[in-house]
Every structure is written in C-alpha cells, then in structure tokens.
Amino acid sequence: MRTDQPTATHARRNAQISKNEEFTVFMREAKDPLHRMAFLLSGDAHRAEELTQQTFERCYRHWHKARAGDPLVYARRVLANLRIDAWRRTRREVLTGPDDLPQDDARVARAAARMPTRSVDDRDAVVRALLRLPLKQRRVVVLRHLLDLSESEVSSELGIPLGTVKSTASRGLAHLRAILDVDPLGGTR
User: What 8-state DSSP symbol labels residue 68?
Assistant: First the structure.
C-alpha cells in the first residue's frame, strides 16, 4: 500500500501542474478581451482591473467547468455576473452624470485640432454613453457590437432568448444614438 500512495500523490501533482499550465495559457490569451469587456461594462479602469482579476480567480477555482466548454465564454459570463453583483452592492452611490461634469473649452479646441486626441475623446464619449444605458442593454450592446459576438452567442452567454437579444440590442443602439446625437445613417445631427 505504501507504494501506491506516492504514485497517487505524484499523479495529483502532475494534474495540478497541467491545470496551472493550461490556465496560464488561457489567462494570457483572455486577459485583453476580458479587460476590454470589463472596462466597457464598468466605465472605470480600476474597477475593470478588479473585475478581470476576480474573473480569473473564479475561473481558476472552477477550471474543470470552464474548460469543459469554451473557457472564454465561461469567463465572459462570470465577468458579466460579477459586474451585476458589483452594481447591486453600489447602486446606492450617487454618481455625477456626464452633463454635470465641467467642460474644458481648451480640451475641446485641442481635440478638434489633432485627430489622435479626437479619437480618444470619441472613445470617452462612447464609454460615457454606455454608462447611461440600463445595465441589461449595456451588456447586450457590449457583447454584440463591441466584442462582435453573434446574437446566438450573446443569447447563450447571458441566458436570455434570442428575440430578447435582438430587441434589447436594437433599443440599446437607438438609446446610444440619442445620447450621442448621431444620425442612424452615420452622421451627427
């Protein structure tokens, strides 16, 4: 019996090493897409870092479930659920709306003068507009249009019917257009 025990321990150690190696490879590949999704859902770089870290921690603890299917799909679902949990804990916070923030005319003039700065301002405007969407619409719009998932992939990831994904995405885009004051044909009003 004593000869079997070290073999079992050695097998467990090898399985743990392969799990760690497999998870490390996944983490390297998924780090950027998950962080981008976290930032788009939260609108804050620090919260995005925390959400991404928490996502990896949960995925590691449940790696046997994550690798049974597509680990990135599992991780995105964990991330979306973590964001909902964080929102529920902090929904009593009073946040300053984009209209209440002071406007810097020099920043606006500089943005018009140089294109790279303009793209940063545009990106910032989109993130601020996303934050004004209801949480359900924001999740669907981020997954469908910013992460380029198909409607069926969004449906399975969020556990909602395909028709709900389509209608929510449509309403979310219309709401974004109204917030950004963008014409559906691509121009500004």
Answer: T
